[in-house]
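To whoever is on call:

I kicked off a structure prediction for a single chain this morning and the downstream step that reads the tokens threw a length-mismatch warning. I double-checked the sequence; it's 341 residues and nothing unusual in it as far as I can see. Pasting both halves so you can look.
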Amino acid sequence: MSETNGVPLPTLKAKDFTTDQDVRWCPGCGDYAVLAAVRKTLPTLGKAKEDYVFISGIGCAARFPYYMETYGLHSIHGRAPAFATGIKIANPTLDVWLVSGDGDLLSIGGNHTLHIMRRNVDVNIILLNNKIYGLTKGQYSPTSETGKVTKSTPDGSIDSPLNPLSVALGANSTFIARGIDIDAKHLTSLMQRGAAHRGCSFIEVYQDCNIFNHKAWFYASQKENRSDNTVSCIHGEPLIFGAESNKGIRFHDGALEVIELGGDFTEDDCMKHDERNRLQAWMLTRMRYPEFPEPLGVLYCDPDVPAYDAQLEAQVEAARAQRGSQDLEALVRGKETWEVS
């Protein structure tokens, strides 16, 4: 049994994080699977329900706080990272989770998402990527593929899609991972690692919108083809995939390539995953189906970068120790004042 301030915590289960609110997502939505995975994850972290805060923006995924028996805030469009940052700074003891979609976090919220990662605020970000705007009924999103036909792009999108993992790596997020909505066991392990990471953890989840973009990720999520179209990134292990583990990823002549094992190539020719290697992580984030399998797992992790909130708290304490107590009116007036007569 875990303790908080010396007080034993009760043993919690997934149902303890379930509210009395009806879950209002479309039947079959991938959000249900992610919600179940989060509820299964939190009891394993050894904290009280009151230690958690769930923050969201706007969109289907943004209903998350209503369905978690924790503290929560359904904030405004794109500004969830700003709210999450403020909450973590105000009370660093809270375990802050941010759950929202690709439209919210990468369009109007793109700037805020970049800066929470750049600052390395100790917040767990779960981005549900369905490559569409679901709440507003099927417009293309920042992650929709070029040529996507939607209500807002009837002749096909001419935009180049954002790659969330590349964006996270470019913004210096210190923990970057990817999972799939229906793989609850894998998602739970990623969330446990993200929660243990001191700094900004960013987990992209391939999530199916079965109403407006059904089967967008089925090539990577379904059992019959997942093994051929995804590769598990396990630290220290070679990048091998395929239904019979007969394919691998090799680094050759400055680039990655898919190789067939059993003939000219063996497991020793495959690149071994190193989650501390930023250059390798960048190459993994740029692998695109169908030329390459989709990388799943922890692509990058640097536990040595200090978290923003911890540094800020130390800075404030140092200032208090150096300057002592301050008079608020004197601080507001400042040293240079004058009177206008």
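Update from on-call: the warning came from a stale cache, not from the record. Cleared it. Sanity check on the structure: The domain at 3-216+306-313 is CATH 3.40.50.970 (Rossmann fold).
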